[in-house]
Write a structure and sequence with these properties.
With 205 residues, the chain is mainly α. The chain is built from 8 helices and 4 strands; from the N terminus they run H-E-E-H-H-H-H-E-E-H-H-H.
Length: 205
């Protein structure tokens, strides 16, 4: 993908997310969603795909430490991921937008779109995993937006289809994660109907 394609794919994923949030009933934000998260928490966690782009771009790094989107996930997943802390960040973000989730999500979708117009592809972001170029970080946020918006749509009974370019980018990252984390043979055999996936299988695990 070109830099422009990567930007457009991220923004399309953001629009997919905002569109699903627009369809949530006012009382729907308190419904169960994913694991220990309620809908409000899941929306808050997913909305961080906007806010981290803004915060990391405002704190640039001095050097590039991670050169590919998959490197970001390999670094994060290779450490001791504190799932309780991740869940708590989702709840905290959900509280940030509790007064008007739809307006906040739409507002930040526009804010991040405008911010991207100011940044070059080579702007080095100071991410939680290390310095990355903007254009290499954005696919990690597309990945989060697509997967968690699909979670959200399922939780609230919305049938919106993810954008094709977002699905392509997500599938590409999933394939790379399967390869580098030793799950490629299992995934290939299952995807071609030769063997069922083991219970609880995940390329993130």
């Amino acid at each position: 993908m070109s830099g422009q394609d990567i930007r457009e794919t991220y923004l399309a994923a953001g629009e997919f997310f905002a569109g699903v949030v627009d369809k949530i009933d006012v009382d729907g934000f308190e419904a169960p969603a994913l694991g220990e998260w309620y809908v409000r928490d899941l929306v808050g966690h997913t909305y961080r795909a906007f806010t981290t782009v803004l915060s990391y771009s405002a704190a640039p790094a001095d050097e590039i430490e991670l050169e590919r989107p998959v490197d970001y996930f390999l670094k994060v997943l290779g450490g001791d991921v504190d799932h309780k802390q991740v869940a708590e960040r989702g709840r905290a973000a959900g509280l940030e937008i509790i007064d008007d989730p739809k307006m906040m999500v739409r507002g930040f979708a526009m804010y991040v779109k405008n911010k991207l117009d100011e940044l070059s592809d080579d702007h080095i972001m100071g991410t939680i995993a290390g310095g990355m170029r903007l254009i290499d970080y954005l696919p990690t946020r597309t990945f989060e937006l697509i997967i968690h918006t699909m979670d959200l749509a399922a939780a609230v009974g919305v049938n919106d289809e993810p954008p094709e370019n977002g699905l392509e980018a997500t599938m590409q990252l999933l394939g790379q994660l399967a390869l580098y984390r030793g799950h490629a043979p299992t995934l290939i055999l299952a995807a071609t109907g030769r063997r069922a996936l083991p219970e609880g299988f995940s390329v993130l695990g």
